Amino acid sequence: MTDSFEPQILAFCCKYCAYAAADLAGSMRLKYPDNIKLIQVPCTGRVDIIHILRAIEDGADGVYVAGCLEGECHFLEGNFKARRRVKYVKDTLEELGIEPERVEMYNLSSAMGPRFAEIANEMAEKIKKLGPTPVKS
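Above: the chain's sequence. Below: its structure in token form.
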């Protein structure tokens, strides 16, 4: 894989925690790749299987869902629903012969700006090693 490959990564972020952590990371001027596109959702429980699969179908090299800490969801169990859906997508990708590591789930609080930047950097490195998505629409 050449060093010129810049993965396109989509991050579904909970409004209350992960998106706020991303905002904090920006305020702290922490560096993370600008090829990670954030989508603010009211709760990760609103991210459906089809949203993740459609992102991959549309050419995203990686997708992650970032929500509240487990047990701290503002909507009680949205992040548990999201975790089950992410696992389903990972299993489906594996059945299709696509690396399941292209999809991940993370939990963090709004005060975890440095952790948000760390996750973004880790995900970018992981996807860069995997290379471009084998799925193109």
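The chain has one domain: 9-130.
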